[in-house]
Amino acid sequence: MRIGGFSIDNFTYKMGENGEHHLEKVEDEKDIGVVIDEKLTFEKHMSEKINKANGIMGLIRRTFEYMDKEIFSLIFESLVRPHVEYANQVWAPSLRKHVEALENGLRRASKQVPGLRDLSYPERLKQLNMPTLAYRRIRGDIIEVFKIMSEDCGYDQSVCKDLLTPSQVTWTRGHRYKLEQQRPRLDLRNKIQSGERLVLSIDTRACQGEDNVVRYLEHVQAVITVNGSRRGDLNINMTSPAGTKSILLSRRPRDDDAHVGFDKWPFMTSHSWGEDPRGPWVLEVGFRGPEPQHGVLKEWTLMLHGTQSAPYIDQVVRDYQSKLAMSKKEELEEELDEAVERSLKSILSKNN
């Protein structure tokens, strides 16, 4: 078996003193109960285990006329689950289709318990006091990592040091099993595909505690670097902490650019005028158009423009549902909270 995408398909291997034994080419091989394929997808292994588990559940269904919650949990955990969990630290799925295929076994089986068929899958598991198979795999990975790092579990520590890097952060609470998280060279999460929305957020305190603090907004700039296979189909929205949604960029049918994109482009909105800028700002990026497109958002920053004092002191509220009314209400509530805090501190200091 050849691991990887090698292009030399006709090459043959021989064994023996004179090379009289030709090694047969295979696409997969079973080793200690795990089917390993040449692309390391473990798809055949998962398929075999799913079929095995489904076969056992079919036999159980034909054998038992009635199963309550306790009997089902006992039977599934002892006869079915071991088949889809054996050595899962080696072959654990990374694709959603494989995760769902494995989970479907428990999803269908849990409907056999009387009174649970009409409940949702999470509710059925809650009634059965059982976790998902995905959770069990994560738990197994954590246990295996603990064994690798522990000197009492038989692993060669010289090899373990090359696999796992202990965390160098010592100024926070924790334990000696903390690990350094490896960062990818590219942030694949910032890829944009048609039919999907890339959602990012920045949680800001608006320079609170500094001289340039912004308490009341005038306008906001989102400085964005993004490109796409068709720039005119890009659509960008931003939502303020107060819930105000602004359209920063809408579809432009005549913009066919596929190379330049937007390089540190300041998209501006004044829809959040008078609001408190503190909190999470949410950016949504996607494509809108008849053809499928793709792109990458490389970076974005937030620039807040405003004042420390209210810009509408002399304005009269005429509509109590308006943003002016809500902003003044927030201002009064904050002043009241500060006054109460000062009073409490004064009372406590006198008592002491």
From TrEMBL:
Sorted UniProt keywords: Hydrolase, Protease, Serine protease
Any one of the GO BP annotations: peptide hormone processing
SUPFAM superfamilies, A to Z: Galactose-binding domain-like (SSF49785)
GO molecular function: serine-type endopeptidase activity
Keyword Hydrolase attributed: yes
Cellular component aspect of the GO annotation: extracellular space; membrane; neuron projection
Top-level taxon of the source organism: Eukaryota
Domain P/Homo B intervals: 164-310
PANTHER family named in the record: NEUROENDOCRINE CONVERTASE 2 (PTHR42884:SF13), PROPROTEIN CONVERTASE SUBTILISIN/KEXIN-RELATED (PTHR42884)
Name of protein: P/Homo B domain-containing protein
